């Protein structure tokens, strides 16, 4: 049985917007407002209102809405909008 190549997470940057992967709450979105490279947590707020700041594990922020096996993610957040410098 072969091994799967590890996926490297997308770099997290202030200004990135992520959407909830939970199919029960697709309307939830967060925006990263502060992140120190190498840190395990990022400070995020509600993307629509800018309210409710909280610290979130960077491991919960994913570059895509699918896993390495191609199945839809059901936990965490997927990147929907990167900053200008990432394009």
Description:
The structure is a single chain. The protein has strands at 17-20, 29-35, 41-46, 54-57, 61-62, 77-81. It starts with 16 loop residues before the first strand and ends in a 6-residue tail after the last strand. It has one domain. Mean pLDDT is 87; it is low at 1-8. With 87 residues, it is mainly β. Helix content is 0%, strand content 32%.
**Low-pLDDT sequence parts:** 1-8
- The gross shape turns out to be globular
For the sheet with most strands, the description reads:
6 strands, mixed
Radius of gyration: 13 Å
State the domain count.
1
Q: Order of strands side by side in the largest beta sheet? A: 4-3-2-1-6-5
Mean pLDDT: 87
What string, H for helix and E for strand, traces the elements in order?
A: EEEEEE
- Helical content (DSSP H or I, runs of 4+): under 10%
What's the helix count? 0
**Helices and strands: which structural class?**
mainly beta
Number of strands: 6
Q: Per DSSP, what share of the residues sits in E-state strands of 2 or more residues?
A: 25-35%
Measure the end-to-end span: 37 Å
